[in-house]
Structure formats: structure tokens, C-alpha cells
């Protein structure tokens, strides 16, 4: 029986391994983590992450061939294939701070693998890492090896949150990079055999190590660039009377462009787009490719511009001040169908409004008050450094109130901001919301999910991204 161990029971490690366990009943899969509470949650009734369909998959395999454990060393020692899916955040200090990937967690995982291994292993990079990381990992592993042979593979993950299970069941492609030696090719084949349990062979792409590592950064950069491109157009639409939804539709009909990922928004968020582009920029700079670095940097700049533009629009339309005014924030997660708030645009929008002394009443169906208060009190890039984080919650801000109902959030508010495209926000009783708000009542739709004409008929003053005012 093949044994797999995955180091890191997070948004990637948990769902990915659960699907491998489901699809490969003859493979034993152990997911290990240094976080005792996270592992306890994976073993309990309330899983540590909200992801549609995940609970069902976990329930089918947990205790059968899927195990969650803090006994990291034993599981690693016994495994044939070790996935490493730890966090690779942006460095906050020292060389490359604010851009380079912090590989502290990866390096400590690699050192531990080298310390406890007693048999040959395939070590798989599941985390998103800078190109050439496999070379560094190889050095750590082989330096300490006592006759043990390691093969490093790069197998980046392309799932998106909110659709993780769907994406894992039916991936566009699985990418495996390895050494172009007979041993490297054998290792690639071993991992291919795992995925071949459910992924058609023509969707499993194999490359050299560096192409696989770079493809992951490139894929995220291209996706984010698409959003920044349409968001840049949204500003021009507002200035000219064009409607960004119509423009997206029109250009998306060109099969070379395609219709997906062209929704203009308050800005992209999530744990990876910004961090991976910054990482790409840093790698370009280190290779003396200034123009290439500047090109990709612009994707982040436009994203920051979009978030600032949204805040400025709110403040300027409310007579240039929101001081003391109640503003309802509907949605805090970085996208719908997830409780994840990492790098959510809501953080920047809320901080911008708080900077102008607004009073915020926030509602999100999946995000807790603790999480929101923590996010609003943390410095940029600090969120993904768990070892440095204080376990205590920061003192709650008096300017921020978190509620469990959209109507309560909007009661007596001067304005309502939609920051996440949760389906339930489309069907709220906006007449009721209007009746209970201060007048003039404003709606700022940062996700373009509302019917502007209907809202205007009710009496709202409406601002939607990239639409005529
Ligand atoms: P996460 O923070 O949810 O999970 C990482 C886990 O690793 C944490 O639970 C942490 O406690 C654990 N960990 C850290 N160091 C450890 C160690 N030495 N030993 C054992 N456990 C350790 O992160 P994530 O969202 O799952 O992302 C993981 C990686 O996957 C990142 O590189 C990310 O860029 C990449 N990725 C993420 C997504 C996504 O949608 N979140 C998608 C594709 C790729
Ligand atoms: C993204 C990629 O889609 C995954 O392929 C990748 O594996 C992952 O990053 C990663 O490496 O972490 P994710 O961040 O989970 O996945 O979610 P997306 O659906 O890509 O959305 C990212 C952000 O862009 C969200 O804030 C979303 O609201 C925003 N977005 C997305 C738009 O503003 N407009 C769009 O048209 C699409």
C-alpha cells in the first residue's frame, strides 16, 4: 500500500488530500500540521475551513484511509510520497521584505523530513514557491541524507477557493515537474499514477522542475492581470458612460479572449494573487529584468487603485465626509462561498472608511467577529506568519460593529457597501432596507450583483463599478 503524508493541513493540504483519499481507496493518506487546533478541527464536526462539498468527502474517508494528525515525524517517516503544502507568505523583514517569498516554513519542513526519514522518498512541492526552490530543497535533503534517496517534484495546485472540490474532482490540468533523469521520470510516473485514478491522462502535464514552478506563478499572474485589466476599463467606463458589464460581455465573445474572469470588482483578494505576483516581481528584479518586473507590478498597482477609488467614491458622494456616519458592509470574505478573509479587499475598504472616521456595521455569513477585528488590526503581510502571531485577539474597535444579519447592519445606516458577491445579497428586501436607512440612502455595489434600475426606483442613490452614474 502506497503511503502519502501531507505536511500542512490548510486550504490546499486538507481538500487536496481528502480528494486523493476518496479517489484512491488503496492509498493511505495522512495530513499533518503543527497547529493542534487545526488538526482537532479536521477530526471534529466543524471543519477548520468552509468549502462546499468538503465535509461530505472528508466524512467518507476519515478514519478509513484519511487521517489528520499532529504526529508529524512518524507519518513523514512512514510515507513514500511527502507533499509539502505549508504557507509561503511574503517576507515582512530583511532582504526582499514586502516582495520575496518567506520560505521559513518550507525550510523547516524540509529539515524535518531529512531528520526523520529512514527510507527513500518522493518529496512534492504543493505550496507555491519561487522558481528554483526545488534546488534549495534538494540541497537541504541530500546534505543530511544517510544513504537515503530523495526525488523532488513540483506539483503546484490550481484550485480556487469556494470551488475547491469541484476543481479537484475535475481539474483543467494537473502539472507535474521533475528532474529529467531516469530517477526523476520514475518519480513523475509514481505521482502520475496517483492522479490517474480519476484524472484523464491527457490532462496530466509533465515538465521539467523549473517550468512547473514558474507555471504556477505565471498562471496566477495572468489571472490577476485579467482582473486588473477589466478594473482599469471600469474606471474609463465611469468617465465615459460606457458600461463595464457590456464591455466584458462584448470582448468575452471573442473566443481568443473568452468570457470567464472578466467581472469587474472592488479589487481582487485572496491569499495568493498579490503574494505570488510580488514574488514574481522579486524574481525578475533579482535576474535584472526591470521592465518585466515593472510590467507585473502594475497589476498590483491597478488593484490598489481600484480599492482606493471605491473608498474615495463613497466618501466624496457622501458630501466628502463619512465621519460619524454608519456604513453597512455586506460581505467581508474575499469572494463568495468561503469564510477566508486573507487579503480580502474588504480590509482595505474598511480601513479607508475607518480612516475617515466612519462607523462600520459588518455582516458576512461565514466570517466571525474575531476574525474581522483581527484582520482590521493587523499590519500588511502579517496575517500569514502564524508563528509570529499573538494567539490573543486584539481589543475590539469601537468604530466596528459585527452583526449576524444584513438588515441589522443596514438599519439607520447612511450607506450600504456590497464587498462580497454572496448570493443572498441579491435577494434581500431592498425596500425594507431603504425604509430603515437614513436619507439620502446610498448603495455602493463593489461586485455589480444588484439591479441598479430597481434600486433607483426604490429611491437609492446607487454607485456600481464601471457603470453610468
Ligand atoms: P494555509 O495557511 O491554509 O495552510 C498551511 C498550513 O501549514 C498551516 O495550517 C500551518 O500551520 C502549516 N504549517 C506551516 N509550517 C509547518 C510545518 N513546518 N510543519 C507542519 N505544518 C506546518 O495555507 P494554504 O492556503 O493551504 O496555502 C498553502 C500553499 O499553497 C501556499 O504556498 C499557497 O500559495 C498555495 N496555494 C494556495 C491556494 C489557496 O487557494 N489557498 C491555492 C493554490 C496554492
Ligand atoms: C486563485 C486562482 O483562481 C486559482 O487557480 C489558484 O490556485 C489560487 O488563486 C491560488 O493560487 O491561491 P482564489 O484566490 O481562491 O484562486 O479565487 P479566485 O476565484 O481566483 O478569485 C480571486 C479574487 O479575484 C477574488 O477576490 C475574486 O472576487 C476576484 N475576481 C475573480 C474578480 O474580481 N473578478 C473576476 O472576474 C474573478
From TrEMBL:
<feature type="domain" description="UDP-glucose/GDP-mannose dehydrogenase C-terminal">
    <location>
        <begin position="328"/>
        <end position="452"/>
    </location>
</feature>
<feature type="binding site">
    <location>
        <begin position="86"/>
        <end position="90"/>
    </location>
    <ligand>
        <name>NAD(+)</name>
    </ligand>
</feature>
<feature type="binding site">
    <location>
        <begin position="272"/>
        <end position="275"/>
    </location>
    <ligand>
        <name>NAD(+)</name>
    </ligand>
</feature>
<feature type="binding site">
    <location>
        <position position="161"/>
    </location>
    <ligand>
        <name>NAD(+)</name>
    </ligand>
</feature>
<dbReference type="InterPro" id="IPR014026">
    <property type="entry name" value="UDP-Glc/GDP-Man_DH_dimer"/>
</dbReference>
<dbReference type="InterPro" id="IPR017476">
    <property type="entry name" value="UDP-Glc/GDP-Man"/>
</dbReference>
<comment type="similarity">
    <text>Belongs to the UDP-glucose/GDP-mannose dehydrogenase family.</text>
</comment>
<dbReference type="GO" id="GO:0005634">
    <property type="term" value="C:nucleus"/>
</dbReference>
<dbReference type="Pfam" id="PF00984">
    <property type="entry name" value="UDPG_MGDP_dh"/>
</dbReference>
<dbReference type="InterPro" id="IPR036220">
    <property type="entry name" value="UDP-Glc/GDP-Man_DH_C_sf"/>
</dbReference>
<protein>
    <recommendedName>
        <fullName>UDP-glucose 6-dehydrogenase</fullName>
        <ecNumber>1.1.1.22</ecNumber>
    </recommendedName>
</protein>
<feature type="binding site">
    <location>
        <position position="342"/>
    </location>
    <ligand>
        <name>NAD(+)</name>
    </ligand>
</feature>
<dbReference type="InterPro" id="IPR028356">
    <property type="entry name" value="UDPglc_DH_euk"/>
</dbReference>
<dbReference type="InterPro" id="IPR036291">
    <property type="entry name" value="NAD(P)-bd_dom_sf"/>
</dbReference>
<dbReference type="InterPro" id="IPR001732">
    <property type="entry name" value="UDP-Glc/GDP-Man_DH_N"/>
</dbReference>
<comment type="pathway">
    <text>Nucleotide-sugar biosynthesis; UDP-alpha-D-glucuronate biosynthesis; UDP-alpha-D-glucuronate from UDP-alpha-D-glucose: step 1/1.</text>
</comment>
<dbReference type="GO" id="GO:0006024">
    <property type="term" value="P:glycosaminoglycan biosynthetic process"/>
</dbReference>
<dbReference type="GO" id="GO:0051287">
    <property type="term" value="F:NAD binding"/>
</dbReference>
<dbReference type="InterPro" id="IPR014027">
    <property type="entry name" value="UDP-Glc/GDP-Man_DH_C"/>
</dbReference>
<dbReference type="InterPro" id="IPR008927">
    <property type="entry name" value="6-PGluconate_DH-like_C_sf"/>
</dbReference>
<feature type="active site" description="Nucleophile">
    <location>
        <position position="272"/>
    </location>
</feature>
<keyword id="KW-0560">Oxidoreductase</keyword>
<feature type="binding site">
    <location>
        <begin position="127"/>
        <end position="128"/>
    </location>
    <ligand>
        <name>NAD(+)</name>
    </ligand>
</feature>
<keyword id="KW-0520">NAD</keyword>
<dbReference type="Pfam" id="PF03721">
    <property type="entry name" value="UDPG_MGDP_dh_N"/>
</dbReference>
<feature type="binding site">
    <location>
        <begin position="8"/>
        <end position="13"/>
    </location>
    <ligand>
        <name>NAD(+)</name>
    </ligand>
</feature>
<dbReference type="GO" id="GO:0006065">
    <property type="term" value="P:UDP-glucuronate biosynthetic process"/>
</dbReference>
<feature type="binding site">
    <location>
        <position position="38"/>
    </location>
    <ligand>
        <name>NAD(+)</name>
    </ligand>
</feature>
<dbReference type="Pfam" id="PF03720">
    <property type="entry name" value="UDPG_MGDP_dh_C"/>
</dbReference>
<dbReference type="GO" id="GO:0003979">
    <property type="term" value="F:UDP-glucose 6-dehydrogenase activity"/>
</dbReference>
<feature type="binding site">
    <location>
        <position position="33"/>
    </location>
    <ligand>
        <name>NAD(+)</name>
    </ligand>
</feature>
